[in-house]
Protein backbone atom coordinates (compact mmCIF):
# COMPACT_ATOMS: atom_id res chain seq x y z
CA UNK A 1 0.00 0.00 0.00
CA UNK A 2 1.35 3.39 -0.92
CA UNK A 3 1.63 6.26 1.49
CA UNK A 4 -1.10 8.21 -0.18
CA UNK A 5 -3.59 5.29 0.17
CA UNK A 6 -2.72 4.76 3.83
CA UNK A 7 -3.31 8.40 4.54
CA UNK A 8 -6.80 8.20 2.99
CA UNK A 9 -7.66 5.08 5.03
CA UNK A 10 -6.64 6.72 8.33
CA UNK A 11 -8.71 9.81 7.42
CA UNK A 12 -11.88 7.72 6.89
CA UNK A 13 -11.39 5.86 10.19
CA UNK A 14 -10.94 9.14 12.05
CA UNK A 15 -14.17 10.60 10.65
CA UNK A 16 -16.10 7.46 11.61
CA UNK A 17 -14.73 7.59 15.16
CA UNK A 18 -15.77 11.24 15.58
CA UNK A 19 -19.29 10.44 14.33
CA UNK A 20 -19.65 7.58 16.82
CA UNK A 21 -18.52 9.78 19.71
CA UNK A 22 -20.98 12.57 18.79
CA UNK A 23 -23.94 10.18 18.40
CA UNK A 24 -23.15 8.52 21.72
CA UNK A 25 -23.12 11.90 23.47
CA UNK A 26 -26.48 12.77 21.91
CA UNK A 27 -28.03 9.50 23.05
CA UNK A 28 -26.69 10.05 26.53
CA UNK A 29 -28.37 13.46 26.73
CA UNK A 30 -31.84 12.06 25.76
CA UNK A 31 -34.30 11.28 28.60
CA UNK A 32 -34.45 7.74 29.79
CA UNK A 33 -38.11 7.48 28.84
CA UNK A 34 -37.46 8.33 25.20
CA UNK A 35 -38.99 5.96 22.71
CA UNK A 36 -38.07 5.12 19.22
CA UNK A 37 -41.14 6.58 17.49
CA UNK A 38 -40.15 10.19 17.09
CA UNK A 39 -38.39 10.54 20.43
CA UNK A 40 -41.61 10.94 22.47
CA UNK A 41 -40.90 10.78 26.19
CA UNK A 42 -42.84 8.82 28.74
CA UNK A 43 -43.99 12.01 30.46
CA UNK A 44 -45.40 13.35 27.19
CA UNK A 45 -47.29 10.10 26.69
CA UNK A 46 -48.74 10.24 30.20
CA UNK A 47 -49.89 13.82 29.75
CA UNK A 48 -52.24 12.58 27.05
CA UNK A 49 -54.15 10.78 29.79
CA UNK A 50 -54.77 13.86 31.95
CA UNK A 51 -54.46 17.63 32.14
CA UNK A 52 -51.53 18.72 34.34
CA UNK A 53 -52.22 21.43 36.94
CA UNK A 54 -50.05 23.33 39.36
CA UNK A 55 -52.85 23.98 41.87
CA UNK A 56 -56.47 22.92 42.26
CA UNK A 57 -59.27 24.49 44.33
CA UNK A 58 -56.94 26.20 46.78
CA UNK A 59 -59.84 27.98 48.43
CA UNK A 60 -61.61 24.78 49.46
CA UNK A 61 -60.97 22.76 52.58
CA UNK A 62 -59.38 19.34 52.56
CA UNK A 63 -61.16 16.81 50.40
CA UNK A 64 -63.61 14.74 52.48
CA UNK A 65 -63.27 10.97 52.51
CA UNK A 66 -66.76 10.64 50.99
CA UNK A 67 -65.56 12.23 47.78
CA UNK A 68 -64.32 9.58 45.35
CA UNK A 69 -62.88 10.92 42.10
CA UNK A 70 -60.68 8.15 40.72
CA UNK A 71 -63.04 7.20 37.87
CA UNK A 72 -65.79 9.09 36.05
CA UNK A 73 -68.42 6.81 37.55
CA UNK A 74 -67.19 7.30 41.13
CA UNK A 75 -66.89 11.05 40.67
CA UNK A 76 -70.49 11.59 39.52
CA UNK A 77 -71.88 9.05 41.97
CA UNK A 78 -70.18 10.85 44.84
CA UNK A 79 -71.51 14.17 43.56
CA UNK A 80 -75.08 12.89 43.42
CA UNK A 81 -74.93 11.27 46.84
CA UNK A 82 -73.54 14.41 48.46
CA UNK A 83 -76.07 16.71 46.79
CA UNK A 84 -78.93 14.38 47.76
CA UNK A 85 -77.72 14.80 51.36
CA UNK A 86 -77.47 18.59 50.76
CA UNK A 87 -73.73 18.52 51.49
CA UNK A 88 -73.00 21.00 48.73
CA UNK A 89 -69.67 22.17 50.20
CA UNK A 90 -68.31 18.64 49.91
CA UNK A 91 -69.83 18.20 46.46
CA UNK A 92 -67.96 21.31 45.30
CA UNK A 93 -64.76 19.22 45.36
CA UNK A 94 -66.00 17.53 42.19
CA UNK A 95 -65.91 20.89 40.37
CA UNK A 96 -62.81 22.48 38.87
CA UNK A 97 -63.12 26.00 40.32
CA UNK A 98 -59.84 27.28 38.90
CA UNK A 99 -61.66 30.15 37.16
CA UNK A 100 -62.80 31.52 40.56
CA UNK A 101 -60.73 33.35 43.11
CA UNK A 102 -59.66 31.29 46.08
CA UNK A 103 -61.63 33.54 48.44
CA UNK A 104 -64.97 32.96 46.74
CA UNK A 105 -64.50 29.26 46.01
CA UNK A 106 -66.07 27.94 49.28
CA UNK A 107 -69.37 29.83 49.06
CA UNK A 108 -69.61 30.06 45.31
CA UNK A 109 -68.56 26.42 44.84
CA UNK A 110 -71.31 25.14 47.12
CA UNK A 111 -73.91 27.22 45.28
CA UNK A 112 -72.68 25.99 41.89
CA UNK A 113 -72.77 22.40 43.14
CA UNK A 114 -76.40 22.84 44.21
CA UNK A 115 -77.34 24.36 40.87
CA UNK A 116 -75.53 21.67 38.91
CA UNK A 117 -77.36 18.99 40.88
CA UNK A 118 -80.70 20.53 39.85
CA UNK A 119 -79.56 20.77 36.24
CA UNK A 120 -78.51 17.13 36.10
CA UNK A 121 -81.71 16.09 37.85
CA UNK A 122 -83.98 17.97 35.44
CA UNK A 123 -82.05 18.62 32.25
CA UNK A 124 -81.10 15.19 30.96
CA UNK A 125 -81.57 11.68 32.22
CA UNK A 126 -78.08 10.70 33.37
CA UNK A 127 -77.44 7.07 34.27
CA UNK A 128 -74.24 6.79 36.31
CA UNK A 129 -73.84 3.12 35.40
CA UNK A 130 -73.26 4.17 31.77
CA UNK A 131 -70.11 6.10 32.72
CA UNK A 132 -66.71 4.38 32.49
CA UNK A 133 -65.55 2.58 35.60
CA UNK A 134 -61.88 2.64 34.61
CA UNK A 135 -59.46 5.29 35.75
CA UNK A 136 -58.32 5.99 32.19
CA UNK A 137 -61.94 5.87 30.90
CA UNK A 138 -60.82 3.65 28.03
CA UNK A 139 -63.58 2.09 25.94
CA UNK A 140 -63.88 -1.63 26.51
CA UNK A 141 -64.92 -3.43 23.34
CA UNK A 142 -64.15 -7.16 23.30
CA UNK A 143 -65.01 -7.34 19.62
CA UNK A 144 -62.40 -4.71 18.79
CA UNK A 145 -64.67 -3.00 16.25
CA UNK A 146 -64.75 0.36 18.01
CA UNK A 147 -62.09 2.65 16.51
CA UNK A 148 -61.06 3.99 19.96
CA UNK A 149 -61.21 0.73 21.87
CA UNK A 150 -58.52 0.49 24.54
CA UNK A 151 -57.31 4.08 24.14
CA UNK A 152 -57.30 6.21 27.32
CA UNK A 153 -59.48 9.32 27.44
CA UNK A 154 -59.17 12.46 29.53
CA UNK A 155 -62.39 14.27 28.57
CA UNK A 156 -65.97 12.96 28.59
CA UNK A 157 -69.37 14.50 27.85
CA UNK A 158 -71.98 14.08 30.57
CA UNK A 159 -74.82 16.03 28.98
CA UNK A 160 -75.56 18.45 26.16
CA UNK A 161 -78.31 20.96 26.97
CA UNK A 162 -79.86 23.89 25.15
CA UNK A 163 -80.58 27.20 26.85
CA UNK A 164 -81.51 30.53 25.27
CA UNK A 165 -80.90 29.16 21.80
CA UNK A 166 -77.35 27.95 22.52
CA UNK A 167 -75.98 24.51 23.30
CA UNK A 168 -73.91 23.96 26.46
CA UNK A 169 -71.93 20.83 27.26
CA UNK A 170 -71.32 19.54 30.74
CA UNK A 171 -68.04 17.69 30.55
CA UNK A 172 -65.91 15.67 32.91
CA UNK A 173 -62.09 15.80 32.58
CA UNK A 174 -59.13 14.09 34.22
CA UNK A 175 -56.63 16.30 36.07
CA UNK A 176 -53.34 15.71 37.90
CA UNK A 177 -51.60 18.05 40.32
CA UNK A 178 -47.85 17.41 40.56
CA UNK A 179 -47.26 13.82 41.62
CA UNK A 180 -50.72 13.20 43.06
CA UNK A 181 -53.11 10.62 41.62
CA UNK A 182 -55.22 11.84 38.67
CA UNK A 183 -58.83 12.72 39.46
CA UNK A 184 -62.00 13.41 37.43
CA UNK A 185 -63.66 16.83 37.79
CA UNK A 186 -66.27 18.97 36.05
CA UNK A 187 -64.37 21.19 33.61
CA UNK A 188 -64.10 24.99 34.17
CA UNK A 189 -66.03 25.71 30.95
CA UNK A 190 -68.91 23.58 32.21
CA UNK A 191 -68.78 25.29 35.61
CA UNK A 192 -69.02 28.69 33.87
CA UNK A 193 -72.20 27.62 32.04
CA UNK A 194 -74.00 26.43 35.20
CA UNK A 195 -75.81 29.78 35.94
CA UNK A 196 -77.21 29.97 32.40
CA UNK A 197 -78.40 26.36 32.47
CA UNK A 198 -79.88 26.83 35.94
CA UNK A 199 -82.12 29.59 34.65
CA UNK A 200 -83.44 27.19 32.04
CA UNK A 201 -83.65 23.97 34.04
CA UNK A 202 -83.93 25.20 37.59
CA UNK A 203 -87.00 24.74 39.80
CA UNK A 204 -90.21 26.36 38.56
CA UNK A 205 -92.25 28.98 40.37
CA UNK A 206 -94.75 26.36 41.47
CA UNK A 207 -92.11 24.43 43.40
CA UNK A 208 -91.52 27.36 45.71
CA UNK A 209 -94.90 26.62 47.32
CA UNK A 210 -94.29 22.88 47.75
CA UNK A 211 -93.44 21.84 51.34
CA UNK A 212 -89.98 20.43 51.87
CA UNK A 213 -91.34 17.12 53.14
CA UNK A 214 -92.78 16.43 49.68
CA UNK A 215 -89.42 17.10 48.01
CA UNK A 216 -87.78 13.99 49.37
CA UNK A 217 -86.87 11.36 46.79
CA UNK A 218 -89.04 8.29 46.40
CA UNK A 219 -87.45 6.07 43.79
CA UNK A 220 -86.35 8.07 40.77
CA UNK A 221 -88.91 10.81 41.44
CA UNK A 222 -89.71 13.07 44.33
CA UNK A 223 -92.86 12.58 46.37
CA UNK A 224 -94.63 15.63 44.95
CA UNK A 225 -93.94 14.45 41.41
CA UNK A 226 -95.81 11.19 41.99
CA UNK A 227 -98.84 13.35 42.76
CA UNK A 228 -98.29 16.11 40.20
CA UNK A 229 -97.62 13.93 37.13
CA UNK A 230 -101.04 12.15 37.15
CA UNK A 231 -102.75 15.50 37.70
CA UNK A 232 -100.70 16.97 34.86
CA UNK A 233 -101.65 14.16 32.48
CA UNK A 234 -105.32 14.37 33.50
CA UNK A 235 -105.35 18.11 32.82
CA UNK A 236 -103.79 17.59 29.39
CA UNK A 237 -106.35 14.87 28.65
CA UNK A 238 -109.22 17.23 29.53
CA UNK A 239 -107.76 19.83 27.16
CA UNK A 240 -107.64 17.27 24.36
CA UNK A 241 -111.20 16.14 25.03
CA UNK A 242 -112.40 19.73 24.86
CA UNK A 243 -110.57 20.40 21.60
CA UNK A 244 -111.98 17.19 20.10
CA UNK A 245 -115.53 18.28 20.90
CA UNK A 246 -114.93 21.85 19.72
CA UNK A 247 -113.59 20.74 16.33
CA UNK A 248 -116.59 18.41 16.01
CA UNK A 249 -118.95 21.34 16.56
CA UNK A 250 -117.07 23.43 14.01
CA UNK A 251 -117.41 20.65 11.45
CA UNK A 252 -121.19 20.80 11.89
CA UNK A 253 -121.29 24.59 11.59
CA UNK A 254 -119.28 24.61 8.39
CA UNK A 255 -121.25 24.35 5.13
CA UNK A 256 -121.52 20.91 3.61
CA UNK A 257 -118.61 20.06 1.40
CA UNK A 258 -114.85 20.08 1.68
CA UNK A 259 -114.55 22.31 4.84
CA UNK A 260 -116.98 20.17 6.81
CA UNK A 261 -115.35 16.91 5.70
CA UNK A 262 -111.85 18.19 6.46
CA UNK A 263 -112.84 19.47 9.91
CA UNK A 264 -114.48 16.17 10.82
CA UNK A 265 -111.37 14.25 9.80
CA UNK A 266 -108.85 16.25 11.87
CA UNK A 267 -110.59 16.05 15.23
CA UNK A 268 -108.17 13.55 16.75
CA UNK A 269 -104.88 14.94 15.35
CA UNK A 270 -105.89 18.50 16.24
CA UNK A 271 -106.68 17.41 19.79
CA UNK A 272 -103.26 15.74 20.12
CA UNK A 273 -101.51 18.82 18.74
CA UNK A 274 -103.17 21.18 21.20
CA UNK A 275 -102.47 18.76 24.03
CA UNK A 276 -98.79 18.69 23.10
CA UNK A 277 -98.49 22.48 22.88
CA UNK A 278 -100.27 23.03 26.20
CA UNK A 279 -98.11 20.41 27.91
CA UNK A 280 -94.94 21.97 26.47
CA UNK A 281 -95.99 25.41 27.73
CA UNK A 282 -96.68 24.07 31.21
CA UNK A 283 -93.29 22.38 31.32
CA UNK A 284 -91.53 25.56 30.20
CA UNK A 285 -93.26 28.13 32.42
CA UNK A 286 -95.25 26.46 35.20
CA UNK A 287 -93.81 23.16 36.38
CA UNK A 288 -90.70 21.09 35.74
CA UNK A 289 -90.06 17.49 36.68
CA UNK A 290 -86.91 15.45 37.07
CA UNK A 291 -85.10 14.26 33.97
CA UNK A 292 -86.65 10.78 34.11
CA UNK A 293 -90.20 12.09 33.87
CA UNK A 294 -89.32 15.04 31.64
CA UNK A 295 -87.52 12.82 29.12
CA UNK A 296 -90.49 10.46 28.89
CA UNK A 297 -93.02 13.29 28.61
CA UNK A 298 -90.99 15.18 25.99
CA UNK A 299 -90.57 12.05 23.89
CA UNK A 300 -94.33 11.52 24.10
CA UNK A 301 -94.95 15.14 23.11
CA UNK A 302 -92.58 14.88 20.14
CA UNK A 303 -94.40 11.78 18.90
CA UNK A 304 -97.78 13.46 19.38
CA UNK A 305 -96.71 16.58 17.48
CA UNK A 306 -95.17 14.60 14.64
CA UNK A 307 -98.18 12.30 14.36
CA UNK A 308 -100.63 15.21 14.55
CA UNK A 309 -98.90 17.28 11.87
CA UNK A 310 -98.43 14.28 9.58
CA UNK A 311 -102.04 13.12 9.99
CA UNK A 312 -103.44 16.59 9.31
CA UNK A 313 -101.33 16.81 6.16
CA UNK A 314 -102.61 13.42 4.98
CA UNK A 315 -106.21 14.36 5.78
CA UNK A 316 -105.76 17.52 3.71
CA UNK A 317 -104.44 15.48 0.79
CA UNK A 318 -107.33 13.00 1.10
CA UNK A 319 -109.87 15.82 1.16
CA UNK A 320 -108.37 17.42 -1.93
CA UNK A 321 -108.39 14.07 -3.72
CA UNK A 322 -112.00 13.55 -2.71
CA UNK A 323 -112.96 16.94 -4.13
CA UNK A 324 -111.10 16.26 -7.36
CA UNK A 325 -112.69 12.82 -7.61
CA UNK A 326 -116.20 14.15 -7.15
CA UNK A 327 -115.69 16.99 -9.60
CA UNK A 328 -113.82 15.21 -12.37
CA UNK A 329 -114.74 11.55 -12.03
CA UNK A 330 -117.89 11.22 -9.96
CA UNK A 331 -119.23 7.71 -9.34
CA UNK A 332 -116.57 5.05 -9.70
CA UNK A 333 -117.52 2.78 -12.60
CA UNK A 334 -116.40 2.05 -16.14
CA UNK A 335 -118.95 4.34 -17.76
CA UNK A 336 -116.56 7.25 -17.28
CA UNK A 337 -114.00 8.02 -20.00
CA UNK A 338 -110.73 6.19 -19.81
CA UNK A 339 -108.73 9.38 -19.20
CA UNK A 340 -110.74 10.20 -16.09
CA UNK A 341 -110.22 6.72 -14.65
CA UNK A 342 -106.52 7.00 -15.46
CA UNK A 343 -106.37 10.37 -13.67
CA UNK A 344 -108.02 8.92 -10.57
CA UNK A 345 -105.54 6.02 -10.52
CA UNK A 346 -102.67 8.50 -10.79
CA UNK A 347 -104.11 10.51 -7.90
CA UNK A 348 -104.17 7.39 -5.74
CA UNK A 349 -100.52 6.74 -6.64
CA UNK A 350 -99.62 10.33 -5.73
CA UNK A 351 -101.41 9.88 -2.41
CA UNK A 352 -99.31 6.82 -1.60
CA UNK A 353 -96.12 8.70 -2.48
CA UNK A 354 -97.17 11.58 -0.22
CA UNK A 355 -97.87 9.13 2.59
CA UNK A 356 -94.41 7.57 2.20
CA UNK A 357 -92.72 10.97 2.22
CA UNK A 358 -94.75 12.10 5.24
CA UNK A 359 -94.02 8.94 7.21
CA UNK A 360 -90.31 9.17 6.37
CA UNK A 361 -90.16 12.85 7.34
CA UNK A 362 -92.02 12.26 10.61
CA UNK A 363 -89.78 9.29 11.46
CA UNK A 364 -86.61 11.28 10.77
CA UNK A 365 -87.91 14.18 12.86
CA UNK A 366 -88.79 11.93 15.81
CA UNK A 367 -85.46 10.09 15.68
CA UNK A 368 -83.51 13.35 15.45
CA UNK A 369 -85.35 14.87 18.42
CA UNK A 370 -84.98 11.91 20.78
CA UNK A 371 -81.45 11.64 22.24
CA UNK A 372 -82.05 7.99 23.03
CA UNK A 373 -81.63 7.06 19.37
CA UNK A 374 -78.16 8.62 19.10
CA UNK A 375 -76.57 5.63 20.80
CA UNK A 376 -79.25 3.26 19.56
CA UNK A 377 -78.47 4.28 15.99
CA UNK A 378 -74.84 3.27 16.39
CA UNK A 379 -75.90 -0.11 17.73
CA UNK A 380 -78.32 -0.62 14.87
CA UNK A 381 -75.68 0.46 12.39
CA UNK A 382 -73.25 -2.06 13.81
CA UNK A 383 -75.80 -4.83 13.29
CA UNK A 384 -77.24 -3.47 10.03
CA UNK A 385 -76.79 -6.73 8.15
CA UNK A 386 -78.67 -8.75 10.77
CA UNK A 387 -81.38 -6.12 10.98
CA UNK A 388 -81.77 -6.06 7.20
CA UNK A 389 -82.21 -9.83 7.11
CA UNK A 390 -84.78 -9.76 9.93
CA UNK A 391 -86.74 -6.90 8.36
CA UNK A 392 -86.61 -8.59 4.96
CA UNK A 393 -88.00 -11.84 6.38
CA UNK A 394 -90.62 -10.28 8.66
CA UNK A 395 -91.80 -7.65 6.19
CA UNK A 396 -91.57 -9.68 2.99
CA UNK A 397 -95.35 -9.84 2.51
CA UNK A 398 -95.89 -6.16 3.34
CA UNK A 399 -93.03 -4.95 1.15
CA UNK A 400 -94.19 -7.20 -1.67
CA UNK A 401 -97.70 -5.76 -1.51
CA UNK A 402 -96.37 -2.19 -1.45
CA UNK A 403 -94.12 -2.75 -4.46
CA UNK A 404 -96.94 -4.50 -6.32
CA UNK A 405 -99.32 -1.60 -5.64
CA UNK A 406 -96.78 0.83 -7.09
CA UNK A 407 -96.40 -1.47 -10.08
CA UNK A 408 -100.16 -1.41 -10.68
CA UNK A 409 -100.31 2.37 -10.27
CA UNK A 410 -97.47 3.01 -12.70
CA UNK A 411 -98.07 0.29 -15.34
CA UNK A 412 -101.88 0.68 -15.02
CA UNK A 413 -103.06 -2.76 -16.15
CA UNK A 414 -106.15 -1.76 -14.17
CA UNK A 415 -107.47 1.67 -13.28
CA UNK A 416 -109.84 2.98 -10.68
CA UNK A 417 -113.33 2.36 -12.07
CA UNK A 418 -112.36 -0.46 -14.44
CA UNK A 419 -114.63 -3.47 -14.70
CA UNK A 420 -112.66 -6.68 -14.28
CA UNK A 421 -113.56 -10.34 -14.31
CA UNK A 422 -111.69 -11.75 -11.31
CA UNK A 423 -112.14 -15.37 -10.31
CA UNK A 424 -115.45 -15.56 -12.15
CA UNK A 425 -116.96 -12.38 -10.67
CA UNK A 426 -117.71 -9.02 -12.23
CA UNK A 427 -116.08 -6.36 -10.08
CA UNK A 428 -115.40 -2.65 -10.29
CA UNK A 429 -111.99 -1.49 -9.04
CA UNK A 430 -112.81 0.94 -6.22
CA UNK A 431 -109.36 1.53 -4.80
CA UNK A 432 -105.70 0.48 -5.07
CA UNK A 433 -104.04 0.80 -1.69
CA UNK A 434 -100.62 -0.11 -0.30
CA UNK A 435 -101.32 -3.72 0.56
CA UNK A 436 -104.74 -4.53 -0.91
CA UNK A 437 -107.18 -3.78 -3.71
CA UNK A 438 -110.84 -3.10 -2.99
CA UNK A 439 -113.24 -4.50 -5.56
CA UNK A 440 -116.99 -3.86 -5.75
CA UNK A 441 -118.97 -6.80 -7.09
CA UNK A 442 -122.13 -6.44 -9.15
CA UNK A 443 -124.27 -7.18 -6.08
CA UNK A 444 -122.58 -4.36 -4.07
CA UNK A 445 -120.30 -6.65 -2.08
CA UNK A 446 -116.70 -5.53 -1.40
CA UNK A 447 -113.84 -7.89 -2.06
CA UNK A 448 -110.57 -7.09 -0.29
CA UNK A 449 -107.79 -8.78 -2.26
CA UNK A 450 -104.05 -8.60 -1.36
CA UNK A 451 -102.15 -6.92 -4.16
CA UNK A 452 -99.65 -9.73 -4.61
CA UNK A 453 -102.49 -12.26 -4.83
CA UNK A 454 -104.32 -10.14 -7.38
CA UNK A 455 -101.33 -9.68 -9.70
CA UNK A 456 -100.43 -13.36 -9.44
CA UNK A 457 -103.83 -14.44 -10.79
CA UNK A 458 -105.05 -13.95 -14.37
CA UNK A 459 -107.88 -11.46 -14.62
CA UNK A 460 -109.88 -10.01 -17.48
CA UNK A 461 -110.05 -6.22 -17.76
CA UNK A 462 -113.30 -5.51 -19.54
CA UNK A 463 -112.53 -1.79 -19.68
CA UNK A 464 -108.91 -1.82 -20.82
CA UNK A 465 -109.76 -0.18 -24.19
CA UNK A 466 -113.51 0.25 -24.22
CA UNK A 467 -116.39 -0.77 -22.01
CA UNK A 468 -118.33 -2.05 -25.05
CA UNK A 469 -118.92 -5.76 -25.04
CA UNK A 470 -120.53 -8.42 -27.25
CA UNK A 471 -123.40 -10.36 -25.70
CA UNK A 472 -124.74 -13.68 -26.98
CA UNK A 473 -128.40 -14.67 -26.65
CA UNK A 474 -129.29 -18.30 -27.31
CA UNK A 475 -132.73 -19.82 -27.93
CA UNK A 476 -133.46 -23.53 -28.22
CA UNK A 477 -136.56 -24.10 -30.40
CA UNK A 478 -138.17 -26.88 -32.39
CA UNK A 479 -136.83 -27.88 -35.79
CA UNK A 480 -139.96 -26.49 -37.38
CA UNK A 481 -139.34 -22.96 -36.03
CA UNK A 482 -138.92 -20.27 -38.69
CA UNK A 483 -135.44 -18.81 -38.22
CA UNK A 484 -136.14 -15.76 -40.37
CA UNK A 485 -139.11 -14.70 -38.24
CA UNK A 486 -137.05 -15.01 -35.08
CA UNK A 487 -134.19 -13.06 -36.71
CA UNK A 488 -136.50 -10.17 -37.67
CA UNK A 489 -138.00 -10.01 -34.21
CA UNK A 490 -134.54 -10.02 -32.63
CA UNK A 491 -133.39 -7.11 -34.79
CA UNK A 492 -136.55 -5.20 -33.96
CA UNK A 493 -136.25 -5.71 -30.22
CA UNK A 494 -132.48 -5.05 -30.16
CA UNK A 495 -132.82 -1.70 -31.93
CA UNK A 496 -135.38 -0.62 -29.35
CA UNK A 497 -132.89 -1.14 -26.48
CA UNK A 498 -131.00 2.04 -25.52
CA UNK A 499 -127.91 0.15 -24.34
CA UNK A 500 -127.45 -1.73 -27.62
CA UNK A 501 -124.98 0.09 -29.89
CA UNK A 502 -123.60 -0.46 -33.39
CA UNK A 503 -126.80 -1.88 -34.88
CA UNK A 504 -124.96 -2.90 -38.04
CA UNK A 505 -123.26 -5.63 -36.01
CA UNK A 506 -126.50 -7.27 -34.94
CA UNK A 507 -126.79 -10.81 -36.29
CA UNK A 508 -128.76 -13.99 -35.72
CA UNK A 509 -127.83 -17.51 -36.90
CA UNK A 510 -128.57 -21.16 -36.26
CA UNK A 511 -125.52 -22.38 -34.41
CA UNK A 512 -126.63 -25.86 -33.34
CA UNK A 513 -128.94 -28.73 -34.21
CA UNK A 514 -130.01 -32.02 -32.69
CA UNK A 515 -132.57 -34.64 -33.60
CA UNK A 516 -135.20 -32.78 -31.59
CA UNK A 517 -134.31 -29.02 -31.62
CA UNK A 518 -132.17 -26.29 -33.10
CA UNK A 519 -130.12 -23.57 -31.34
CA UNK A 520 -130.45 -19.98 -32.57
CA UNK A 521 -127.75 -17.55 -31.39
CA UNK A 522 -128.26 -13.78 -31.47
CA UNK A 523 -125.33 -11.36 -31.12
CA UNK A 524 -125.49 -7.77 -29.95
CA UNK A 525 -123.01 -5.04 -28.95
CA UNK A 526 -123.71 -3.22 -25.65
CA UNK A 527 -122.30 0.03 -24.32
CA UNK A 528 -120.91 -1.68 -21.21
CA UNK A 529 -120.96 -5.22 -19.82
CA UNK A 530 -123.66 -4.71 -17.20
CA UNK A 531 -125.92 -2.81 -19.61
CA UNK A 532 -125.35 -5.58 -22.14
CA UNK A 533 -126.47 -8.18 -19.61
CA UNK A 534 -129.68 -6.21 -18.95
CA UNK A 535 -130.33 -5.80 -22.68
CA UNK A 536 -129.78 -9.51 -23.24
CA UNK A 537 -132.28 -10.42 -20.54
CA UNK A 538 -134.91 -8.00 -21.91
CA UNK A 539 -134.62 -9.25 -25.50
CA UNK A 540 -134.76 -12.89 -24.40
CA UNK A 541 -137.94 -12.23 -22.42
CA UNK A 542 -139.58 -10.50 -25.42
CA UNK A 543 -138.61 -13.29 -27.83
CA UNK A 544 -139.94 -15.92 -25.47
CA UNK A 545 -143.18 -13.98 -25.09
CA UNK A 546 -143.50 -13.71 -28.90
CA UNK A 547 -143.02 -17.45 -29.40
CA UNK A 548 -145.33 -18.33 -26.53
CA UNK A 549 -148.14 -16.09 -27.79
CA UNK A 550 -147.86 -16.66 -31.55
CA UNK A 551 -146.04 -19.94 -32.21
CA UNK A 552 -146.19 -22.24 -29.20
CA UNK A 553 -145.54 -25.21 -31.52
CA UNK A 554 -141.96 -23.92 -31.90
CA UNK A 555 -141.05 -24.98 -28.39
CA UNK A 556 -138.89 -28.11 -28.35
CA UNK A 557 -140.69 -31.33 -27.28
CA UNK A 558 -139.97 -34.98 -26.81
CA UNK A 559 -141.17 -37.49 -29.51
CA UNK A 560 -142.47 -40.87 -28.36
CA UNK A 561 -142.72 -43.66 -31.02
CA UNK A 562 -145.77 -45.87 -30.51
CA UNK A 563 -145.39 -47.88 -33.71
CA UNK A 564 -142.65 -48.85 -36.10
CA UNK A 565 -145.15 -48.89 -39.03
CA UNK A 566 -144.01 -46.66 -41.86
CA UNK A 567 -147.12 -45.42 -43.64
CA UNK A 568 -145.05 -44.40 -46.66
CA UNK A 569 -144.22 -48.02 -47.35
CA UNK A 570 -147.57 -49.50 -46.47
CA UNK A 571 -146.04 -52.02 -44.02
CA UNK A 572 -148.12 -53.62 -41.32
CA UNK A 573 -147.46 -52.65 -37.78
CA UNK A 574 -144.75 -54.83 -36.26
CA UNK A 575 -145.20 -53.64 -32.68
CA UNK A 576 -148.40 -53.99 -30.81
CA UNK A 577 -149.50 -50.65 -29.36
CA UNK A 578 -149.67 -50.37 -25.61
CA UNK A 579 -152.83 -51.54 -23.94
CA UNK A 580 -155.52 -48.89 -23.76
CA UNK A 581 -154.15 -47.06 -26.79
CA UNK A 582 -156.04 -47.40 -30.04
CA UNK A 583 -154.10 -47.65 -33.23
CA UNK A 584 -155.56 -45.38 -35.89
CA UNK A 585 -154.06 -46.68 -39.04
CA UNK A 586 -150.68 -47.21 -37.31
CA UNK A 587 -150.00 -43.42 -36.91
CA UNK A 588 -147.45 -42.19 -34.47
CA UNK A 589 -148.64 -39.50 -32.04
CA UNK A 590 -146.62 -36.77 -30.55
From TrEMBL:
GO cellular component assignments: membrane
Ranges where the record places region Disordered: 134-153, 566-590
Signal peptide range in chain numbering: 1-28
Official protein name in the record: Mechanosensitive channel MscK
Skewed-composition ranges (Basic and acidic residues): 566-575
A GO molecular-function descriptor: mechanosensitive monoatomic ion channel activity
SUPFAM superfamilies: Sm-like ribonucleoproteins (SSF50182)
Domain named Mechanosensitive ion channel MscS: residues: 398-463
TM regions (residue ranges): 223-250, 271-293, 299-322, 343-368, 380-403
UniProt keyword list: Membrane, Signal, Transmembrane, Transmembrane helix
